[in-house]
Amino acid sequence: MVDTDGQRRTAFIEAAVAGVSWPAVAAGAVAACALTMLLLAFGMGLGLSVVSPWAGSGVSATTFKIGTGLYLIVVAMLASSIGGYLAGRLRTSWTGVHSDEVYFRDTAHGFLAWAFASILGAALLATPASNIIGGGLSAAAQGASTAAVQSSGPMDPYVDTLFRPATPSAQTPGDPAAARSEMVRLFTTSFRSGSDMKPADRAYVTKVVASRTGLSEADADKRVNEVVTEVKADLDAARKASAKLAFWLTASLLMGAFCASLAATEGGGLRDGTWGRRAPLRA
User: Fold this and answer.
1) For residues 119 and 25, is the Cβ–Cβ distance under 8 A?
2) Measuring CA to CA, which residue among 86, 104, 69, 103 is closest to residue 32?
3) What secondary structure does DSSP assign to 104-145, as a single string?
4) Of the candidates 242, 231, 235, 268, which has an alpha carbon nearest to the alpha carbon of residue 107?
5) pLDDT, mean of residues 105-127
6) How do residues 154-171 score in pLDDT, each as one tens digit?
7) In the prediction, which pLDDT does 17 show?
8) φ, ψ for residue 91 (rounded to 5)?
9) Half-sphere exposure in the Cβ direction for 119 (13 Å, CA)
């Protein structure tokens, strides 16, 4: 005989209790975000202590990159586990809810705590970044109105190489500042689109370099080729480094989501006294 009254009573109790305990989720997310910042600050100090500008001192660049990626994963695992555990341990008790449903809700609490912490961390990091960008734009606008030729950009080192005189007595006809600004614009426009410099621009750059440095056009063209190759190599290295960092971040986020969900089930099980002995709820 089916106890319909008991089933209706259980269903009523289950419906009356909220499926998500948002205060517990928020508490776990804040704890995870704070712990992440703490560990990142420690990792920054640790990283600065193992690198050195002197040859033969400190770790290699490859070791540093791999160590940084592994440390990001460790940070995500630790912070997410603690945040998920708190979200599961601090949630309200669900009376009359099936054990499988409780297990699912605890897992969801850990996942929500991880997601909330990720969004909170991104917002905290985006705010100072936007302030830096805004300050940089304001400074650039002010500098352009007063002394545009004194501005500095990422292509300036390459242009320095182009305009290095072959001899100390080499003549520099025309306006050096205007020629330099024009070269910076040509290089920036060409490499920003990911394409090679136009043939007409390339020939013009060679002539300007020959005029500015005292080199023959053949030697100037050779220098332009060397600098263009250097620019492409540096851009390719930066692209590869960014791609590797993106993969490490993806791995750390996935590990964080898994650890937070798993830790929340443990916290919820300890909260109800059912950890390690899951059993279906009998009517």
Assistant:
1) no
2) 86
3) HHHHHHHHHHHHHHHHHHHHHHHHHHHHHHHHHHHHHHHHHH
4) 268
5) 88
6) 777 677 778 766 655 555
7) 64
8) -70, 160
9) 8
**Rounded to whole angstroms, how far apart are CA atoms 272 and 35?**
26
pLDDT in tens, 175-196: 677 777 878 877 887 777 667 7
Residue 70's pLDDT is 93
User: CA 242, 248, 253 angle in degrees (round to 5)?
Assistant: 125
Number of other CB atoms surrounding residue 179 within 10 Å: 18
In whole angstroms, what is the distance from residue 264 CA to residue 103 CA?
9
**Residues near 120 by beta carbon (within 8 Å), at least 6 away in sequence:** 29, 30, 33
**Percent of the chain at pLDDT exceeding 70:** 76
Query: Residues near 55 by Cβ (< 8 Å), separated by ≥ 6?
Result: none
57's tokens: 């001192």
Q: How many CA atoms lie within 13 A of 50 on its CB side?
A: 15
CA–CA distance, 78 with 255 (Å, rounded to integer): 10
In whole angstroms, give the CA distance from residue 212 to residue 94. 79
Single out the residue of 115, 120, 73 nearest to residue 264, CA to CA: 115
Tokens of 237: 């290295």
Give the whole-angstrom CA distance, residue 244 versus residue 62. Answer: 11
Whether the predicted pLDDT of 87 surpasses 90: yes
- Residue 167 has what pLDDT? 58
